[in-house]
Amino acid sequence: MGLITEKLPALVEPVPGGSVLLSSLDAVINWARSNSLWPLTFGTSCCAIEVMMAAGAARHDLARFGAEVTRPSPRQADLLVVAGTIVRKMAPRLKLLYEQMAEPRYVIATGSCAISGGPFIYNNYSTVRGADEIIPVDVYVPGCPPRPEAFFYGILMLQKLIREGESLRTPGVRRKPVLAALPAGITIEQIQQELRELLEPQGGRR
Amino acid sequence: MSAIVTTLEQRIGRGATTQEFFVNMGPQHPSTHGVLRLVLKLEGETVKDVIPVLGYVHRGVEKMGEHLSYRQFVHLTDRLDYLSALANNWAVAKAVEKAAGIETNERIETIRTLVAELQRIASHQLWWGVFGMDLGAFTPFLYGFRDRERITDILEETIGARLTMNYIQPGGVMFDLHPDFQRKVKEFIAYFRPKLEEYETLLSRNIIAQERMRGVGVLEAAQAVALGATGPVLRASGVAHDLRKSEPYGVYGKVEFDVPVGARGDCWDRYWVRIEEIRQSLRIIEQLIENIPEGKHLLVKPAVRTKVPEGITYSQVETARGVFGVLLVSDGKDVPYRIHVRTPNFNNLWAITRIAPGWRVADLVTMISSLDIVVPDIDR
Predict the structure, then answer these.
(1) Distance (Å, rounded) from C-alpha A183 to C-alpha B336?
(2) Residue contact A127–B59, C-beta within 8 A
(3) Would you tell me how many other CB atoms lie within 10 Å of the CB of residue A164?
(4) For residue B57, how far is the Cα from the chain centroid?
(5) What is the DSSP letter of A75?
(6) CATH 3.40.50.12280 boundaries in chain A
(7) Which CATH number fits the domain that encloses residue B93?
(8) B146–A58: do the CB atoms touch at under 8 Å?
(9) How crowded is residue B247: how many other Cβ atoms within 10 Å of its Cβ?
(10) Nearest-CA neighbor of B324 among B264, B262, B380?
(11) CA-to-CA distance for B269 and B55, rounded, in angstroms?
(12) Which residues contact B359 (CB under 8 A, 6 or more apart)?
């Protein structure tokens, strides 16, 4: 027991009875991650007003979903909200921003422009037809621009996606499990062993 | 504190210089309001020169306009300066009406003026909040958006959109006013007047905000005119140029309002002019809201493809940021041969190259914010 409580306190959840609930490592990590998304302050055009500013302000209050800590540096953020048109000159920068973010990283494409190019598809020489031509996108939020409520639905979908560890693109198929980096000197086998010892005396109930 | 902080001069000796170096500010930077890239030539922390690099959200709106009918082009102007979408729509509608000889009635013009003024207030509220945030105060952001949501609600009831309106079209407006419009606008004015005083108490009379604004980034009147700056940026420099006064359109000729003018052209003047413009907009709305004339709200068929006779037409309106002009070149078809938009932010942006040299990087953020730029409007 000592290993988990002392070295990995984030993986333990106290329950009212005073005992410890640990269903699986993935579930706990995913639960924690899904409820503390840190978005990158990034908006190219109109959608930024709605999904970054109005959503974060007093009436809509993004903080209710644990995603209000916007970070200007991609190295500190784990959620990239592509809010607005991506043009060819911006595309390499968007890719760079995405690559600078630490894993696991998630992407929400908000608005028609980030989904498909939106009103700027036809007779146009400069726009990229959707952010997913450059970076992988997890959740799409339609609208031009989407209301803050629509964006919240997107956030909730992303939280669900993170919790279940699967992608909406391939429903039902689990992605590579999202695992935190373990402290030096601790292996996953040790934790599994300790978990097994913890769970054995309770008759093997999971 | 002063004992701990040693200046460069103390450490190296008087007359020491540092190497000049270039730093990118943007395209992704929280205080460039979008994807504006500024290349800063710095000496220590002092800005020597600012070189704006544009095009990170260039969407080719003018080229697209050559393939769209005039009614279809209206919705693209929403997405230029999205904070004054209605004024942008109005500029296109005005140009087409002027070129094709479409008459409008009193009700249409009154509705246009009312909604445009409401959005001017909303735009300045947003600017006020973001300006506070750029100075390092988060509370104005929350206050500004709290009140902006009320205007958004009013406009949403009539128009059906919160931001990209696509409402004013050649020959009228898309929908008639919502029955609750008058009542809600009156309620809003009664609600917002005391709140505006709160804004003043919170930020305008804050000594830190004053210290950061007064005397910072002075733009001379001659410079402002030479740059083609318009709107509050020009008026703060002491030039009383407001299209609503100098060549009245809509029903601005029939209402009383003042054009606030700054004295020095520093950040404080630009701040004060915008706050004062909110008051004037409230005055305009108060005069118009009581008796909106009766009549039809749309005098052409909703989806008609207007044919514009051959020729060149220019029309301009005063948005929350300055003069927004539309130049139509028509060859007699229902799509323009060439359409050019003159956007206020493009010219206002270049003021930064004149006012920033000599100031610190932290002051540069104040100056960018006081110019109130919207980047898609610059890049088009």
Answers:
(1) 65
(2) yes
(3) 17
(4) 18
(5) G
(6) 38-153
(7) 1.10.645.10
(8) yes
(9) 12
(10) B380
(11) 30
(12) B46, B47, B216, B217, B367
Model confidence, pTM: 0.81
**Which residues of A make CB contacts under 8 Å with B?**
41-46, 48-50, 53-54, 57-59, 72, 74, 84-85, 87, 89-90, 93, 97, 119-120, 122-127, 144-145, 147
Radius of gyration of chain B measured on its C-alpha atoms: 22
- Looking at the fold, whether B92 and B187 belong to one and the same domain comes out as yes
CB-CB contact of B353 with B368 (8 Å)? no
Q: Are residues B34 and B106 in the same domain?
A: no
Q: What is the pLDDT of residue A1?
A: 47
Strand partners, B173: B168
Name the residue in chain B with its Cα closest to that of A122: B64
Please report, as a single letter, which amino acid is at residue A182: L
SS3 B211: helix
- The verdict on B216 and B309 lying in the same domain is yes
Q: Does domain A38-153 have CATH number 3.40.50.10860?
A: no
- Measure the CA angle with vertex B84, ends B79 and B86; round to 5°: 85
ipTM: 0.83
Nearest CA in chain B to A147: B162
Q: Please check whether residue B164 touches A, CB under 8 A.
A: yes
Q: DSSP assignment of B331-377, as one string?
A: -SSSS-SEEEEE-HHHHHHTHHHHHSTTSBHHHHHHHHHHHT--HHH
Q: Between A44, A49, A119, which is nearest B35 by CB?
A: A44
Partner A, chain B 69-88, Cβ-Cβ below 8 Å? 75-76, 78-79, 82-83
d(CA B266, CA B271): 9
Range of the domain at B244: 61-374
Tens digits of residue pLDDT in B291-324: 888 888 888 887 778 888 888 999 999 998 889 9
Task: State the DSSP code for A103.
Answer: S
Ranges of residues in chain B with a pLDDT under 70 are 1-17, 32
In 3D, which of A124, A53, A76, A7 has the Cα closest to residue B33? A53
